[in-house]
Design brief:
With 370 residues, the chain is α/β, with parallel strands linked by helices. Helix content is 34%, strand content 16%. The protein is built from 13 helices and 15 strands. Strands 3-2-1-4-5-6-14-15 form an eight-stranded mixed beta sheet, sandwiched between helices. β1, α1 and β2 form a beta-alpha-beta unit. The relative contact order is 0.14. Bound molecules: nicotinamide-adenine-dinucleotide. Belongs to the AlaDH/PNT family. InterPro entries: Ala_DH, Ala_DH/PNT_CS2, AlaDH/PNT_CS1, AlaDH/PNT_N, AlaDH/PNT_NAD(H)-bd, NAD(P)-bd_dom_sf. Pfam families: AlaDh_PNT_C, AlaDh_PNT_N. Keywords: NAD, Oxidoreductase.
C-alpha cells in the first residue's frame, strides 16, 4: 500500500504520525512510505532519518495527499486539507468528530474512509490509542504542578519532596484512572505525600496494593474532598465519565477553603474540567489565578513534549497501521473488532452512532460497509 505522512499544520502541533522506526516496519511489510519534508522536525526526526529508514520525502502536503492510499497523521484534518482528501482514501488519525460538525460534513463530502484513533476500542472497553496521551499528561501534570508551586510563579513556595526536617507537599489526585495513576507515580517518586480519590472502590483497592507507602487512597465524595482541600498544596483533576462532561467536584465556593498559592492542574479540561472555575488555556498562557488559587488548564498537554508524545502514540498506532496496510481497511476491520470500532465516516456514510446522534445525521451500521 502507498502510505503518506503529512506534516501537521494545526497550530502548535509538533507531533508526527509515523516515526523513522515505523517507516522501517512498514517498508519491511512491503509498503511504500512518502513523508512530507520536515514533517518530523518538531519531534526531532529529520528528513535524512526518514530517508535512511526507507521513506521518500515529498516537498508539499499536496504531493503527499495526492499519491497516498492511506494517510497516517495525528490531528484531525483542518479546513485547508479538506479538499486534498480523495474519495476512498483511508485516513488514520484523531478526529474527535462529535466536537466539530464542519469536519464531519467535510469528510462525508470527500467520501473518505475515516478511522479515528479515539474510538478504536478493546474488548475490555479500554481505548488503546488514547491511553498513551493520558500517560503523558498524567506524568506531566506533576512536573507542571511542581513548577507552579514555586513562589515566582505565584505558588505556595513549597518543594514537592520537602527536605530532611521539612515536610513534603501534599498532592491530591481526583480520579485514579490512567492520568491519575501516572500522576501518583511521579508525585510519589518525588517524595510528595499523595492522596488519590476515586468513586470506584475496586480501583482504590488495586491502587492501594500497587502504590508505594506515600500514596493513600480515599473515597471520592463531597465531604472528603472538602476536608482535604484546605491541607493540600497541589490538586490534579483526572476524572473521566465516558461520554459525559466531567463532574464539577470542586465548586467555585470551595476555592476559599484552599490556601493562597494552592495549584490546581485540571487535566480533565478537555471534558469541561472537574473544577468549576476551569477554562481551557494554552502552552503560551498556561495559568490564571482565581481567589489566589493557580489554575493550570492546558487542553493539549502532550503537545509540549512532542518527542515523548510522538513515540508514545506511534508505539500504540503502528501495529494497527500495519494491519490496515497489509490487509486493506475492509479486511482489517472485518478481522478486528477493535479497528472496526474506529470507523466513523466511510465513503459518505456516518457509521459511528455517537457521531450521527451528535449532529442528527443518518446512521449506517458499520457492518453494511464492510
Ligand atoms: N489535558 C490534556 O492534555 C489531556 C491529555 C490526556 C487525557 N486528558 C483527559 O484526562 C481525563 C482522565 O483521563 P483518563 O485516561 O485518566 O481516564 P480514565 O477513564 O482512565 O480514569 C478516569 C477515572 O475517573 C474516575 N472517576 C469517575 N468519577 C469520579 C468522581 N466523581 N470522583 C473521582 N473519580 C472519579 C473513574 O472511576 C476512573 O478511575 C479525561 O478527561 C481525558 O480526556 C487530558
Amino acid at each position: 500500500m502507498i502510505i503518506g505522512v503529512p506534516k501537521e499544520i494545526k497550530n502548535n502541533e509538533n507531533r508526527v504520525g509515523v516515526t523513522p522506526a515505523g517507516v522501517v516496519e512498514l517498508v519491511r511489510n512491503g509498503h511504500t512510505v512518502y513523508v512530507q519534508s520536515t514533517a518530523g522536525e518538531g519531534s526531532g526526526f529529520t528528513d535524512d532519518m526518514y530517508e535512511g529508514a526507507g521513506a521518500t520525502i515529498l516537498p508539499t502536503i499536496e504531493d503527499v495527499y495526492s499519491i497516498a492510499e492511506m494517510i497516517i497523521k495525528v490531528k484531525e484534518p483542518i479546513e485547508s486539507e479538506y479538499s486534498l482528501i480523495k474519495e476512498d482514501q483511508l485516513l488514520f488519525t484523531y478526529f474527535h468528530f462529535a466536537s466539530y460538525e464542519p469536519l464531519t460534513h467535510a469528510m462525508i463530502k470527500q467520501k473518505a474512509v475515516c478511522l479515528a484513533y479515539e474510538t478504536v476500542e478493546r474488548a475490555d472497553r479500554s481505548l488503546p490509542l488514547l491511553v498513551p496521551m493520558s500517560e503523558v499528561a498524567g506524568r506531566m501534570s506533576i512536573q507542571e504542578g511542581a513548577k507552579y508551586l514555586e513562589k515566582p510563579l505565584k505558588g505556595r513556595g513549597i518543594l514537592l519532596g520537602g527536605v530532611p526536617g521539612v515536610r513534603p507537599a501534599k498532592v491530591m489526585i481526583l480520579g485514579g484512572g490512567v492520568v491519575g495513576t501516572n500522576a501518583a507515580k511521579m508525585a510519589a517518586g518525588m517524595g510528595a505525600d499523595v492522596t488519590i480519590l476515586d468513586t470506584n472502590l475496586a480501583r482504590l483497592r488495586y491502587l492501594d496494593d500497587v502504590m508505594p507507602a506515600n500514596v493513600n487512597t480515599f473515597m471520592s465524595n463531597e465531604y472528603n474532598i472538602r476536608e482535604l482541600l484546605s491541607t493540600h498544596d497541589l490538586i490534579i483533576g483526572a476524572v473521566l465519565i465516558p461520554g459525559a462532561k466531567a463532574p464539577h467536584l470542586i465548586t467555585r465556593d470551595m476555592l476559599k477553603d484552599m490556601r493562597p498559592g494552592t495549584v490546581v492542574v485540571d487535566v480533565a479540561v478537555d471534558q469541561g474540567g472537574c473544577i468549576e472555575t476551569c477554562k481551557p488555556t494554552t502552552h503560551e498562557n498556561p495559568t490564571y489565578i482565581i481567589d489566589d488559587v493557580v489554575h493550570y488548564c492546558v487542553a493539549n498537554m502532550p503537545g509540549a513534549v512532542p518527542y515523548t508524545s510522538t513515540l508514545a502514540l506511534t508505539n500504540a498506532t503502528l501495529p494497527y497501521a500495519i494491519q490496515l496496510a497489509n490487509k486493506g481497511w475492509k479486511q482489517a476491520c472485518a478481522d478486528s473488532n477493535e479497528l472496526k470500532l474506529g470507523l466513523n465516516v466511510v465513503q459518505g456514510k456516518v457509521v459511528y452512532k455517537g457521531v450521527a446522534e451528535a449532529f442528527n445525521l443518518d446512521y449506517t451500521p458499520v457492518e453494511s460497509v464492510l
